[in-house]
């Protein structure tokens, strides 16, 4: 894993980008009527982060609107006048205005219907190439993750329990929680069935268990699982899992 040292400026840009996308959709949609029009929302990062003069700001905003397929006449409207999909594109445009290299997208499509999800996912894929972006894409929707991610980190109880290239992790999960997630995902033509018993117990954050936090739900758990917390280790082919008895 490569860690990138961040300058103070980059931390600011990353924080702004994270706020822009993770909070902007609900925030933009809920902005009280009459507060800021879209043009002012998009100008803010250009002024505050880049101290960009007014003439250059206008050109930059034109380019960003074009990239996210929004019309220039939207600049004078208020956020509450837009649909969910349009508000999401405004949120993405505001994040892009900060000229980030990394965007943290926290559940960016979970509030949209499936057809709108596909549009936004396609837009994000296009912008990734056009602006040379890296996304940290946070989602509970495995189908969306599979469509957008190059590498996937699966978290359970606050820890990364599996990390691998996306195709590999979906085709051959090594951690039993990843396997459970894959079995739980709804699929067209597959009957809905509970992937585990109704008595499956979630760990208590106030009283974290010893050993592997997934042990009470895991069909492969043994004594060592209940005593020793498994480290995240390379299980071969660049697939990392925190598991004493990884799935085949
Ligand atoms: S460490 Fe043990 S309990 Fe935890 S996922 Fe692996 S086999 Fe299951």
CATH class of the largest domain: Alpha Beta
* Parts with pLDDT < 50 across at least 5 consecutive residues: 8-26
Percentage beta strand: 5-15%
The quaternary state of the protein chains shown equals: single chain
Q: What's the rounded overall pLDDT mean? A: 84
Q: Provide the domain count.
A: 2
Number of helical elements: 9
How many individual β-strands? 6
Distance between the amino and carboxyl termini: 24 Å
Q: What class, by secondary structure content? A: alpha+beta
The main sheet orders its strands as: 3-4-6-5
From the spread of the alpha carbons, the general shape counts as: elongated
**Helicity level:** 40-55%
List the ligand species: iron/sulfur cluster
What order do the SSEs take from the amino end to the carboxyl end, as H and E? HHHHEHEHEEHHHEE
Task: Specify the CATH architecture of the largest domain.
Answer: 3-Layer(aba) Sandwich
Largest sheet features: 4 strands, antiparallel
Taking all Cα atoms into account, the compactness measure Rg is 21 Å
- CATH level 3 topology of the largest domain: Rossmann fold
Account of the protein in words:
The structure is a single chain. The protein has 248 residues and is an alpha+beta fold. The chain has two domains: 9-149, P-loop containing nucleotide triphosphate hydrolases (Rossmann fold, 3-Layer(aba) Sandwich); 152-186 and 204-241, no CATH class. The chain contains nine helices and six strands; from the N terminus they run H-H-H-H-E-H-E-H-E-E-H-H-H-E-E. The strands form two sheets. The protein has a four-stranded antiparallel sheet. Strands 1-2 form a two-stranded parallel sheet. It is elongated, with a radius of gyration of 21 Å. The model is unreliable at 8-26 (pLDDT under 50). It binds iron/sulfur cluster. Residues 175-176, 212, 214-215, 218, 220-221, 225, 230, 243-245 line the site of iron/sulfur cluster (SF4).
């Amino acid at each position: 894993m490569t860690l990138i040292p961040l300058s103070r400026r980059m931390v600011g840009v990353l924080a702004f980008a994270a706020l822009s996308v993770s909070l902007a959709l609900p925030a933009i949609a809920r902005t009280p009527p009459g507060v800021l029009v879209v043009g002012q929302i998009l100008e803010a990062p250009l002024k505050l982060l880049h101290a960009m003069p007014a003439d250059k700001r206008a050109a930059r905003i034109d380019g960003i609107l074009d990239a996210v397929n929004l019309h220039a006449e939207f600049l004078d409207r208020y956020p509450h006048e837009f649909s969910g999909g349009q508000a999401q594109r405004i949120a993405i445009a505001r994040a892009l205005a900060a000229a980030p290299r990394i965007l943290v997208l926290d559940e960016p499509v979970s509030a949209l219907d499936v057809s709108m999800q596909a549009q936004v996912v396609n837009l994000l894929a296009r912008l990734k190439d056009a602006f040379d972006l890296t996304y940290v894409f946070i989602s509970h929707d495995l189908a969306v993750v599979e469509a957008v991610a190059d590498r996937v980190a699966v978290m359970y109880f606050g820890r990364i329990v599996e990390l691998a290239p996306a195709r590999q992790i979906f085709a051959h999960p090594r951690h039993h929680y990843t396997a459970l997630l894959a079995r739980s995902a709804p699929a067209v033509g597959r009957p809905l069935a509970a992937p585990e018993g109704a008595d499956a117990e979630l760990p208590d954050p106030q009283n974290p268990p010893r050993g592997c936090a997934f042990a009470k739900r895991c069909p492969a758990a043994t004594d060592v699982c209940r005593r020793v917390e498994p480290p995240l280790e390379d299980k071969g082919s660049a697939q990392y899992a925190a598991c004493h008895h990884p799935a085949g």
